[in-house]
Amino acid sequence: MRHTGGTDWTADRGRDRLDGPLAALMEETGASVGMVYLLGSGERVLRLGFVAGVPPPITAPWARVSLDEAIPVSDAIRERRLVWLGGGQEEIARRYPRLGLVLPYEFLLAATALADRDDEVRGGIVLLWPVWHPPRLSEREREAIDTFARHAGQRLREAAVEGGAEWPPEGEPRLLPAPVRRQEDPARAAAALDFAERMPLGCCALDLDGQITFINAAGADLVGSEASQLLGRRPWEVLPWLRDPLVEDRYRAAVVARQPTAFTAVRPPDVRLFFQLYPDEHGISLHISPARSVTSGKADPAALAPAPAAARVSHVAQEPVGALGLYHLTHLAAALAEAIGVRDVMERLADQIVPALGPQGLVLMAVEEGRLRIIGHRGYEPGFIERFDGAPLTSSVTNAQVLATGAPVFFPSYEEFRRAHPTAPRQEGRNAWAFLPLTASGHPVGSLVLSYDRPRPFPAAERALLTSLAGLIAQALDRARLYDAKHALAHTLQTGLLPHTLPGVPNLEVTARYRPAGHGMDIGGDFYDLIRPTPSTVLAAIGDVQGHNVNAAALMGQVRTAVHAHGTAGAPPSELLARTNRLLTDLDPGLFTSCLIAQIDLAHGRARLASAGHPPPLLRYPGGSTDVLEVPPGLLLGIEPSAEYPTREISFPPGALMVLYTDGLVETPGADIEAATVSLARHLDGSGMQNLDDVADTLLRHAQHTAPRTDDIALLLMRAARQPEA
Questions:
Q1: pLDDT tens-digit readout, 456-501
Q2: Residues 6+ apart with CB under 8 A from 296
Q3: 189 in a domain, yes or no?
Q4: CB proximity list for 8: less than 8 A, separation 6 or greater
Q5: 565 in any annotated domain
Q6: Closest CA relative to residue 718, chosen from 528, 556, 485, 512
Q7: Per the confidence metrics, is the pTM higher than 0.85?
Q8: Is there a domain that residue 726 lies in?
Q9: Per-residue pLDDT reduced to its tens digit, 42-63
């Protein structure tokens, strides 16, 4: 049996270096769709580089994916694991609502990271299967995917070295051709053609891009057109009565799910037709037959043949809005619903609109203090666009005027634009513009400008689509600005409660880090402090208040104040925790707090430790070995007023490094926290005598690399200075 591991991975030095391996992987695993994403060094955005089994219009909304999004390939890369969705549409909708909303079809999905031999992620791969695939991957399929991931990661590394700053490449992803059919005998091919032409019912073939590659005479007659006018065109583009979102939806369902689909449509004036689509990896076979007559009520028996997901298309005169326009609008709506801040809205907007609707330029502006401020843009030189930043709402420019009227303005050609604005500057090559007001809850929040290289007629349906789009963007932008305001307030509160600087201590190196979890308002209850009760002693504290909200931050401020006051007064660790605990039980805040106190006697090279349910500290000895220090456990602060906190005394010689941290550094859902702590200790063991700031950053990177962080992280490192040699 052939495995992808047998592929010649040394061939192909150009951008097609993954063509053969990806095709071999899909054949080996039986996958119907394959997508390879590329990741540049230090970037947080994946770019779609290779596609197989599905046409570009369907993958366009997924051309750029943030690593922070709740998307299978992003999760697979962040968590460094294989993401498998084997439960069909129900599991996809539950785990990835946005994906389930935009692609509400039955398919199975796998995603995993592509890493090179140095374990640096270079991209990711997504594979789709029809639902008749078993609900679990076989060992052979997993092995094939793992083999591809290893070798593809190394190939992408080579491509990145060759491409330099130009990697990953911009532009359309590379589309792998469909598998070549075996060569048919000419006589058999002619016989098949004669058979199709003799059929009294319609026979039509579409490629995966939806374009008609063959239609027999009966099919052309049923749809009321000449075969020559249909070939090379999509049915819904050339036949006005098929311009219905449902037609494109059934086509997408056939391509993505690789399952038969069907729909009925009315050819004017009253000819009702039944369309059945049968897909495979080469394209779609389309069967056309008369359905129930609108006037006579009689039914053709062929129209009663069962077909899954059958639906009816009403004859509504529509103008085309571009291939899959409503599909892209749904995708954008789902993406904007997940946007957080204003910058996030801009990135999602640019990543979705440009591939979906085809503008070459995009400018997003927000109303701030009576002026339009540019949030972001694509397709423009910074020098050109900066002249419009800060334009007053009363100015005569169209992007401000549309906010005054509330109505969008479209310029199908440069001549029309010039008549309206004779002196306005023009980005070279632009020949059509759409100016869209962004209004939410009756008040203006900004405007959006789209520009195109070619003249564009902007038919009524497209104008309606863009107007709906503007409404979605306005709501998302309004929410995002509110979030940014709350985030700024939370950040100010958080930084105000943590120490701005740590006191300098002779013969002791100290550094600290705080990293929010990256969810909510980025505010939590983690804290650290360093206190000097006497010239020769130092007291270090680290703690974690339950929760991620303003209440947790406020309680954190109270706990830190109490710890600082008792520590400055010279209370030993056990007494300090006992006093703070009694304070919290009196306050009864409804939140509990973990805390660890380390009192270090630099003169004698000793340290005393006491813990209130906090993760154990790490101690790296001058010789290089690292211990996880087991401190006698005490109750969390705020539970029992009479709780006691035993002390452990240890040696802290010159050159020793102590690491205090909160559980966000080692705790992830479903993982063994003790094993994670041991892994962290081993990593610290190999850190050597680096600069202390470098050690702190290394520990944070190790934690992020091991598994995604779901909690805040506070980190405090202290190293006793070595005594100079005599």
A1: 998 876 787 788 788 888 988 988 888 888 777 766 776 677 787 8
A2: none
A3: no
A4: 20
A5: yes
A6: 512
A7: no
A8: no
A9: 788 899 999 999 987 788 878 8
